[in-house]
Amino acid sequence: MNVLLDHLPQFREGFLGTLSITAASAALALVLGVVIAGFRVSPIPPLRAFGTTWVTLLRNTPLTLLFLIAFFVVPQIFFPGTSPFVLAMGALGCYTSSFVCEAVRSGINTVPLGQAEAARSLGMTFFQTLRLIVLPQATRSVIPPMSSIFIALTKNSAIAGAFSNTELFNVSKLLSDKGFAIGWIFLWIALCYLVITFAISGLFRLLENRLEVAR
User: Fold this and answer.
1) Dihedral pair phi/psi, residue 61, rounded to 5°
2) C-alpha–C-alpha distance, residues 14 and 165, integer Å
3) pLDDT tens for each residue of 172-205
4) Model pTM above 0.70
């Protein structure tokens, strides 16, 4: 316990840092994922090609490589002076958005085609049909895989600690470098991650139960 109690401010700061980077990246991934999923089912060929390219590239690129690009290429060419938090959020959010996109696209495919055809017969545009008719119905089937995606995002956020971000992995590295027992450090770090992942799992289970269709 002395490892935790003597360094409680560092653990608290790391815990809040992990929460921050996870929440910000999840929000970015959700927005991008839904937009790219719309592109992938769009009747416009260039949008479909863009969506397919986005998913194929990001899903097949190691996350560590994306972090290296975000931290050593993006600031040099596009956005000099960008904070490490924003760069880490961008790398994590873009990577996770490819998985969100596929989950959303799978949910869209569960909606009967007749729903979209009925909307178009009423004069709705494609994006109106997607936003008002298809996505609300697809939500039920999208929630279960989203839980796994965001739990994986939480664990992937540990990579941000190696790139000047204060989070749980970074705290464990700092304390182990000072000579503290690495086993106890990892135990408390693991418990912190369990708290976050159980909270995410519980939240999505609650959403799933609330949206469940009575049988």
Assistant:
1) -110, 130
2) 9
3) 777 776 666 677 777 888 888 999 999 999 999 9
4) yes
